Amino acid sequence: MTGLAILDRQSDAPAAGGGTGGRRRRPSVSSKPLVAGVVVLGLLLGLAVLLWPGGGSRHATAHFPRAVGLFVGSDVRILGVRVGTVDKIVPQGTSVRVDFTYDKKYKVPADAKAAVVAPSVVSDRYVQLTPVYRSGPVMRDGADIPLQRTATPVELDRIFSSLNDLNVGLGPQGANKDGALTRLLRVGADNLDGQGQKINTTLTDFSQAIATLGDGRDDLFGTVRNLQVFTSALAANDQQVRSFNQDLARVADQLAGERGDLAAALRNLAVALGEVSSFVRDNRANLTANIKGLAAVTRVLVTQRDALVETLEAGPVALSNLQLAYNPKSGTLDTRNNAQQPDMGALLCGVLVKVGKSGECADLIGGLQRLQAAGPPKVPAAVRAPDKTLGGILGGTP
Questions:
Q1: How far is residue 255's CA from residue 191's CA, in Å, rounded to a whole number?
Q2: Which of 149, 195, 270, 351 is 20 to 30 A from 160 in CA distance terms?
Q3: Spans of all domains in the chain
Protein backbone atom coordinates (compact mmCIF):
# COMPACT_ATOMS: atom_id res chain seq x y z
CA MET A 1 0.00 0.00 0.00
CA THR A 2 1.60 3.25 -1.13
CA GLY A 3 -0.94 5.73 -0.04
CA LEU A 4 -4.61 6.29 0.54
CA ALA A 5 -6.64 9.47 0.01
CA ILE A 6 -10.21 9.98 1.03
CA LEU A 7 -11.90 12.80 -0.73
CA ASP A 8 -15.30 14.01 0.27
CA ARG A 9 -17.40 15.42 -2.41
CA GLN A 10 -18.25 19.07 -2.19
CA SER A 11 -21.75 19.72 -1.05
CA ASP A 12 -23.89 21.75 -3.48
CA ALA A 13 -26.71 22.22 -0.96
CA PRO A 14 -27.62 25.83 -0.15
CA ALA A 15 -26.64 27.24 3.13
CA ALA A 16 -29.06 27.00 5.98
CA GLY A 17 -31.61 29.71 6.24
CA GLY A 18 -31.99 30.03 2.49
CA GLY A 19 -29.96 32.28 0.42
CA THR A 20 -27.62 31.62 -2.25
CA GLY A 21 -24.33 31.42 -0.38
CA GLY A 22 -21.13 29.94 -2.03
CA ARG A 23 -20.31 26.18 -1.92
CA ARG A 24 -18.18 24.94 1.11
CA ARG A 25 -15.28 22.30 0.58
CA ARG A 26 -14.40 19.65 3.29
CA PRO A 27 -10.76 19.35 4.26
CA SER A 28 -8.88 16.13 3.10
CA VAL A 29 -7.51 13.51 5.64
CA SER A 30 -3.85 12.17 5.16
CA SER A 31 -3.20 8.34 5.25
CA LYS A 32 0.49 8.37 6.42
CA PRO A 33 -0.09 7.62 10.15
CA LEU A 34 -2.22 4.61 9.28
CA VAL A 35 0.46 3.15 6.96
CA ALA A 36 3.20 3.55 9.60
CA GLY A 37 1.08 1.74 12.18
CA VAL A 38 0.45 -1.18 9.85
CA VAL A 39 4.19 -1.54 9.07
CA VAL A 40 5.18 -1.46 12.76
CA LEU A 41 2.54 -4.08 13.59
CA GLY A 42 3.85 -6.34 10.83
CA LEU A 43 7.44 -6.05 12.08
CA LEU A 44 6.38 -6.86 15.62
CA LEU A 45 4.50 -9.93 14.45
CA GLY A 46 7.51 -11.10 12.42
CA LEU A 47 9.89 -10.65 15.36
CA ALA A 48 7.45 -12.44 17.64
CA VAL A 49 7.37 -15.42 15.27
CA LEU A 50 11.15 -15.51 14.96
CA LEU A 51 11.99 -14.91 18.61
CA TRP A 52 9.16 -16.86 20.22
CA PRO A 53 10.64 -19.67 22.41
CA GLY A 54 10.62 -23.00 20.61
CA GLY A 55 9.90 -21.50 17.28
CA GLY A 56 11.98 -21.95 14.11
CA SER A 57 14.20 -24.79 12.97
CA ARG A 58 17.83 -25.73 12.56
CA HIS A 59 19.65 -27.29 9.63
CA ALA A 60 22.38 -29.94 9.88
CA THR A 61 24.24 -32.39 7.67
CA ALA A 62 25.21 -36.02 8.27
CA HIS A 63 27.45 -38.27 6.17
CA PHE A 64 26.52 -41.97 5.87
CA PRO A 65 28.29 -44.83 4.08
CA ARG A 66 24.91 -45.80 2.54
CA ALA A 67 21.40 -44.36 2.47
CA VAL A 68 19.30 -47.32 1.30
CA GLY A 69 15.62 -46.83 2.13
CA LEU A 70 16.13 -43.16 3.05
CA PHE A 71 14.23 -40.53 1.01
CA VAL A 72 13.56 -36.83 0.99
CA GLY A 73 10.84 -36.27 3.57
CA SER A 74 11.92 -39.20 5.79
CA ASP A 75 11.65 -38.58 9.51
CA VAL A 76 14.39 -37.30 11.78
CA ARG A 77 13.73 -38.61 15.30
CA ILE A 78 15.03 -38.48 18.86
CA LEU A 79 14.08 -41.50 20.97
CA GLY A 80 11.57 -42.41 18.28
CA VAL A 81 9.83 -38.99 18.43
CA ARG A 82 9.67 -37.11 15.13
CA VAL A 83 11.53 -33.79 15.38
CA GLY A 84 12.32 -33.02 11.72
CA THR A 85 12.61 -34.26 8.13
CA VAL A 86 15.25 -35.09 5.54
CA ASP A 87 15.67 -32.24 3.02
CA LYS A 88 18.23 -33.55 0.56
CA ILE A 89 20.25 -36.71 -0.19
CA VAL A 90 23.43 -36.16 -2.22
CA PRO A 91 25.89 -38.96 -3.18
CA GLN A 92 29.54 -37.98 -2.61
CA GLY A 93 32.00 -40.60 -3.79
CA THR A 94 31.97 -43.50 -1.32
CA SER A 95 29.55 -41.78 1.09
CA VAL A 96 26.17 -40.05 1.04
CA ARG A 97 25.43 -36.60 2.41
CA VAL A 98 22.05 -36.17 4.04
CA ASP A 99 20.77 -32.64 4.78
CA PHE A 100 17.97 -32.45 7.32
CA THR A 101 16.02 -29.94 9.35
CA TYR A 102 14.77 -30.31 12.92
CA ASP A 103 12.77 -28.14 15.27
CA LYS A 104 15.18 -26.05 17.30
CA LYS A 105 13.07 -26.39 20.44
CA TYR A 106 14.64 -29.87 20.71
CA LYS A 107 18.18 -29.65 22.06
CA VAL A 108 20.76 -31.94 20.49
CA PRO A 109 24.30 -32.45 21.93
CA ALA A 110 27.09 -30.80 19.95
CA ASP A 111 28.82 -34.19 19.53
CA ALA A 112 25.64 -36.06 18.63
CA LYS A 113 25.68 -39.16 16.44
CA ALA A 114 23.28 -40.09 13.65
CA ALA A 115 22.08 -43.56 12.66
CA VAL A 116 19.76 -44.83 9.96
CA VAL A 117 17.15 -47.02 11.67
CA ALA A 118 15.01 -49.61 9.90
CA PRO A 119 11.79 -50.27 11.88
CA SER A 120 11.10 -53.34 9.73
CA VAL A 121 12.33 -55.01 6.58
CA VAL A 122 9.91 -53.29 4.18
CA SER A 123 9.09 -49.95 5.84
CA ASP A 124 10.85 -46.64 5.22
CA ARG A 125 13.80 -45.79 7.36
CA TYR A 126 14.49 -42.69 9.42
CA VAL A 127 17.45 -40.83 10.88
CA GLN A 128 17.90 -41.22 14.63
CA LEU A 129 19.88 -38.57 16.59
CA THR A 130 21.60 -39.87 19.70
CA PRO A 131 22.31 -39.53 22.58
CA VAL A 132 19.61 -37.59 24.40
CA TYR A 133 20.69 -34.11 25.46
CA ARG A 134 21.35 -33.77 29.20
CA SER A 135 23.80 -30.92 29.59
CA GLY A 136 26.62 -29.09 27.86
CA PRO A 137 26.84 -27.35 24.46
CA VAL A 138 24.13 -27.93 21.85
CA MET A 139 24.39 -28.52 18.13
CA ARG A 140 24.46 -25.26 16.18
CA ASP A 141 22.66 -24.40 13.00
CA GLY A 142 24.52 -25.80 9.98
CA ALA A 143 26.42 -28.40 12.01
CA ASP A 144 28.10 -31.31 10.21
CA ILE A 145 28.12 -34.87 11.59
CA PRO A 146 31.15 -36.69 10.09
CA LEU A 147 31.19 -40.24 8.80
CA GLN A 148 32.91 -41.46 11.98
CA ARG A 149 29.80 -40.56 14.03
CA THR A 150 27.17 -42.17 11.80
CA ALA A 151 25.96 -45.73 11.36
CA THR A 152 23.71 -47.64 8.96
CA PRO A 153 22.02 -51.03 9.34
CA VAL A 154 23.32 -54.10 7.56
CA GLU A 155 21.28 -54.73 4.43
CA LEU A 156 19.53 -58.05 3.98
CA ASP A 157 21.03 -58.55 0.53
CA ARG A 158 24.53 -58.03 1.98
CA ILE A 159 23.82 -60.77 4.54
CA PHE A 160 22.63 -63.08 1.76
CA SER A 161 25.68 -62.17 -0.31
CA SER A 162 28.03 -62.95 2.59
CA LEU A 163 26.28 -66.28 3.21
CA ASN A 164 26.53 -67.10 -0.48
CA ASP A 165 30.26 -66.25 -0.49
CA LEU A 166 30.75 -68.50 2.55
CA ASN A 167 28.78 -71.29 0.91
CA VAL A 168 30.81 -71.04 -2.28
CA GLY A 169 34.08 -70.88 -0.30
CA LEU A 170 33.20 -74.08 1.59
CA GLY A 171 31.59 -75.83 -1.36
CA PRO A 172 32.93 -78.24 -3.96
CA GLN A 173 34.71 -75.44 -5.77
CA GLY A 174 36.33 -74.07 -2.63
CA ALA A 175 37.67 -75.60 0.56
CA ASN A 176 35.90 -78.92 -0.06
CA LYS A 177 37.29 -79.34 -3.55
CA ASP A 178 39.40 -82.31 -2.43
CA GLY A 179 37.00 -83.37 0.32
CA ALA A 180 38.98 -81.64 3.10
CA LEU A 181 35.89 -80.14 4.73
CA THR A 182 34.07 -83.46 4.58
CA ARG A 183 36.99 -85.23 6.25
CA LEU A 184 37.21 -82.49 8.86
CA LEU A 185 33.54 -82.85 9.74
CA ARG A 186 33.78 -86.64 9.80
CA VAL A 187 36.87 -86.65 12.04
CA GLY A 188 35.33 -84.00 14.28
CA ALA A 189 32.13 -86.03 14.59
CA ASP A 190 34.12 -89.17 15.45
CA ASN A 191 36.21 -87.32 18.05
CA LEU A 192 33.20 -85.65 19.65
CA ASP A 193 31.01 -88.73 19.62
CA GLY A 194 30.13 -89.60 23.22
CA GLN A 195 32.19 -86.72 24.63
CA GLY A 196 29.28 -84.40 25.32
CA GLN A 197 29.55 -84.68 29.10
CA LYS A 198 33.28 -84.00 29.05
CA ILE A 199 32.81 -81.04 26.73
CA ASN A 200 30.08 -79.70 29.01
CA THR A 201 32.37 -80.14 32.03
CA THR A 202 35.21 -78.42 30.20
CA LEU A 203 33.05 -75.45 29.28
CA THR A 204 31.71 -75.25 32.83
CA ASP A 205 35.21 -75.32 34.32
CA PHE A 206 36.37 -72.76 31.79
CA SER A 207 33.49 -70.45 32.70
CA GLN A 208 34.32 -70.85 36.39
CA ALA A 209 37.95 -70.06 35.65
CA ILE A 210 36.89 -66.94 33.78
CA ALA A 211 34.64 -65.97 36.70
CA THR A 212 37.53 -66.50 39.13
CA LEU A 213 39.78 -64.33 37.01
CA GLY A 214 37.03 -61.73 36.87
CA ASP A 215 36.63 -61.75 40.66
CA GLY A 216 40.38 -61.47 41.14
CA ARG A 217 40.95 -58.87 38.48
CA ASP A 218 42.06 -56.31 41.06
CA ASP A 219 44.77 -58.66 42.35
CA LEU A 220 45.71 -59.60 38.79
CA PHE A 221 46.02 -55.99 37.71
CA GLY A 222 47.89 -55.23 40.93
CA THR A 223 50.37 -58.00 40.11
CA VAL A 224 50.78 -56.65 36.59
CA ARG A 225 51.37 -53.16 37.97
CA ASN A 226 53.95 -54.50 40.44
CA LEU A 227 55.68 -56.36 37.62
CA GLN A 228 55.69 -53.15 35.63
CA VAL A 229 57.26 -51.31 38.57
CA PHE A 230 59.82 -54.11 38.95
CA THR A 231 60.75 -54.08 35.27
CA SER A 232 60.96 -50.28 35.35
CA ALA A 233 63.34 -50.51 38.31
CA LEU A 234 65.45 -53.06 36.45
CA ALA A 235 65.51 -50.82 33.40
CA ALA A 236 66.50 -47.80 35.50
CA ASN A 237 69.33 -49.82 37.13
CA ASP A 238 70.43 -51.63 34.01
CA GLN A 239 74.15 -51.07 34.67
CA GLN A 240 73.98 -52.47 38.20
CA VAL A 241 71.98 -55.46 36.99
CA ARG A 242 74.56 -56.13 34.28
CA SER A 243 77.39 -55.92 36.83
CA PHE A 244 75.56 -58.30 39.17
CA ASN A 245 75.00 -60.79 36.35
CA GLN A 246 78.66 -60.59 35.37
CA ASP A 247 79.81 -61.15 38.96
CA LEU A 248 77.40 -64.04 39.31
CA ALA A 249 78.70 -65.51 36.07
CA ARG A 250 82.29 -65.25 37.35
CA VAL A 251 81.33 -66.93 40.62
CA ALA A 252 79.59 -69.70 38.67
CA ASP A 253 82.68 -70.14 36.48
CA GLN A 254 84.92 -70.32 39.55
CA LEU A 255 82.66 -72.89 41.21
CA ALA A 256 82.56 -74.86 37.96
CA GLY A 257 86.36 -74.84 37.82
CA GLU A 258 86.63 -76.03 41.41
CA ARG A 259 83.76 -78.47 41.37
CA GLY A 260 86.19 -81.38 41.77
CA ASP A 261 87.61 -79.92 44.97
CA LEU A 262 84.15 -78.99 46.14
CA ALA A 263 82.89 -82.53 45.50
CA ALA A 264 85.90 -83.96 47.39
CA ALA A 265 85.28 -81.58 50.29
CA LEU A 266 81.65 -82.63 50.43
CA ARG A 267 82.66 -86.30 50.39
CA ASN A 268 85.17 -85.74 53.20
CA LEU A 269 82.56 -83.81 55.13
CA ALA A 270 80.18 -86.72 54.72
CA VAL A 271 82.89 -89.11 56.02
CA ALA A 272 83.65 -86.77 58.94
CA LEU A 273 79.99 -86.51 59.84
CA GLY A 274 79.75 -90.30 59.74
CA GLU A 275 82.72 -90.66 62.06
CA VAL A 276 81.34 -88.03 64.43
CA SER A 277 78.06 -89.87 64.43
CA SER A 278 79.80 -93.15 65.19
CA PHE A 279 81.88 -91.54 67.96
CA VAL A 280 78.81 -90.02 69.56
CA ARG A 281 76.97 -93.35 69.32
CA ASP A 282 79.86 -95.34 70.83
CA ASN A 283 80.59 -92.83 73.63
CA ARG A 284 77.07 -91.82 74.45
CA ALA A 285 77.38 -92.62 78.14
CA ASN A 286 80.70 -90.78 78.58
CA LEU A 287 79.43 -87.78 76.62
CA THR A 288 76.29 -87.71 78.75
CA ALA A 289 78.35 -87.76 81.95
CA ASN A 290 80.72 -85.09 80.63
CA ILE A 291 77.85 -82.88 79.57
CA LYS A 292 76.24 -83.27 82.97
CA GLY A 293 79.55 -82.39 84.65
CA LEU A 294 79.96 -79.44 82.30
CA ALA A 295 76.47 -78.34 83.23
CA ALA A 296 77.43 -78.48 86.93
CA VAL A 297 80.61 -76.47 86.27
CA THR A 298 78.59 -74.00 84.25
CA ARG A 299 76.13 -73.60 87.11
CA VAL A 300 79.04 -72.93 89.48
CA LEU A 301 80.46 -70.34 87.09
CA VAL A 302 77.06 -68.71 86.81
CA THR A 303 76.65 -68.69 90.59
CA GLN A 304 80.15 -67.33 91.15
CA ARG A 305 79.98 -64.94 88.25
CA ASP A 306 80.78 -61.91 90.40
CA ALA A 307 83.76 -63.66 91.96
CA LEU A 308 84.97 -64.80 88.55
CA VAL A 309 84.70 -61.26 87.23
CA GLU A 310 86.64 -59.96 90.23
CA THR A 311 89.28 -62.68 89.75
CA LEU A 312 89.70 -61.82 86.08
CA GLU A 313 89.97 -58.15 86.93
CA ALA A 314 92.43 -58.67 89.81
CA GLY A 315 94.40 -61.52 88.15
CA PRO A 316 96.57 -59.30 85.89
CA VAL A 317 97.34 -57.02 88.88
CA ALA A 318 98.28 -60.02 91.03
CA LEU A 319 100.60 -61.40 88.33
CA SER A 320 102.18 -57.98 87.98
CA ASN A 321 102.69 -57.82 91.75
CA LEU A 322 104.17 -61.32 91.66
CA GLN A 323 106.62 -60.25 89.02
CA LEU A 324 107.57 -57.19 91.07
CA ALA A 325 107.87 -59.26 94.24
CA TYR A 326 110.50 -61.57 92.72
CA ASN A 327 114.04 -60.73 93.78
CA PRO A 328 116.43 -62.00 91.11
CA LYS A 329 119.51 -61.43 93.25
CA SER A 330 118.39 -63.71 96.03
CA GLY A 331 115.97 -65.81 93.97
CA THR A 332 113.18 -65.20 96.51
CA LEU A 333 109.72 -63.63 96.58
CA ASP A 334 109.92 -60.62 98.83
CA THR A 335 106.43 -60.38 100.34
CA ARG A 336 104.94 -59.16 103.57
CA ASN A 337 103.02 -61.54 105.77
CA ASN A 338 99.40 -60.51 106.34
CA ALA A 339 98.01 -60.99 109.79
CA GLN A 340 94.59 -62.09 108.57
CA GLN A 341 94.62 -65.18 106.36
CA PRO A 342 91.53 -66.44 104.55
CA ASP A 343 89.86 -69.60 105.74
CA MET A 344 90.99 -71.84 102.90
CA GLY A 345 89.05 -74.80 104.31
CA ALA A 346 85.70 -72.97 104.18
CA LEU A 347 86.48 -71.60 100.72
CA LEU A 348 87.39 -74.97 99.24
CA CYS A 349 84.49 -76.69 101.02
CA GLY A 350 82.08 -74.22 99.44
CA VAL A 351 83.44 -75.12 96.01
CA LEU A 352 83.00 -78.85 96.74
CA VAL A 353 79.39 -78.27 97.81
CA LYS A 354 78.67 -76.47 94.55
CA VAL A 355 79.98 -79.35 92.46
CA GLY A 356 78.10 -81.95 94.52
CA LYS A 357 81.11 -83.28 96.47
CA SER A 358 80.03 -82.15 99.95
CA GLY A 359 81.04 -85.52 101.45
CA GLU A 360 84.72 -84.72 100.89
CA CYS A 361 84.62 -81.49 102.95
CA ALA A 362 85.45 -83.30 106.24
CA ASP A 363 88.58 -84.95 104.78
CA LEU A 364 89.70 -81.65 103.24
CA ILE A 365 89.26 -79.69 106.48
CA GLY A 366 91.02 -82.47 108.49
CA GLY A 367 94.01 -82.42 106.14
CA LEU A 368 94.30 -78.63 106.37
CA GLN A 369 94.15 -78.77 110.17
CA ARG A 370 96.94 -81.38 110.28
CA LEU A 371 99.13 -79.21 108.06
CA GLN A 372 98.49 -76.24 110.31
CA ALA A 373 99.32 -78.25 113.44
CA ALA A 374 102.58 -79.55 111.95
CA GLY A 375 103.83 -75.98 111.57
CA PRO A 376 106.20 -74.62 108.93
CA PRO A 377 108.84 -76.93 107.54
CA LYS A 378 112.23 -76.88 109.18
CA VAL A 379 115.06 -75.24 107.27
CA PRO A 380 118.17 -77.42 107.11
CA ALA A 381 121.38 -76.19 108.65
CA ALA A 382 123.23 -76.07 105.40
CA VAL A 383 121.39 -73.52 103.28
CA ARG A 384 122.06 -73.99 99.72
CA ALA A 385 122.21 -71.25 97.13
CA PRO A 386 118.85 -69.66 96.27
CA ASP A 387 116.96 -70.93 93.24
CA LYS A 388 116.75 -67.95 90.88
CA THR A 389 114.54 -69.83 88.38
CA LEU A 390 111.68 -70.52 90.79
CA GLY A 391 111.91 -74.23 90.16
CA GLY A 392 112.46 -73.83 86.45
CA ILE A 393 109.52 -71.49 85.85
CA LEU A 394 111.74 -68.67 84.74
CA GLY A 395 113.91 -70.94 82.60
CA GLY A 396 117.34 -72.41 83.26
CA THR A 397 118.45 -75.11 85.67
CA PRO A 398 117.48 -74.76 89.35
A1: 54
A2: 149
A3: 57-153, 158-193, 291-333+345-357
Query: How would residue 72 be classed by pLDDT, with cut points 50, 70 and 90?
Result: very high
Percent of the chain with pLDDT over 90: 23
What is the Cα Rg of the chain in Å? 62
In angstroms, rounded to a whole number, what is the distance separating the alpha carbons of residues 331 and 113? Answer: 122
DSSP class per residue in 347-361: HHHHHHHHTT-GGGH
Tell me if 352 sits within 8 A of 360, measured CB to CB: yes
- Within the chain, where are the H helices? 32-51, 156-170, 180-192, 196-215, 217-236, 238-257, 259-282, 284-303, 305-325, 344-354, 361-374
Per residue in 90-126, pLDDT tens? 999 899 999 999 998 999 999 999 999 987 766 678 9
What values do phi and psi take at 76, rounded to 5? -115, 125
Cβ 154 vs Cβ 68: under 8 Å: no
3-state DSSP assignment of residue 88: strand
Bridge-based pairing of strands 57-64 and 143-145 is parallel
HSE of 328, CA atoms in CB hemisphere, 13 A: 5
Q: Phi and psi of 330, rounded to 5°?
A: -100, -10
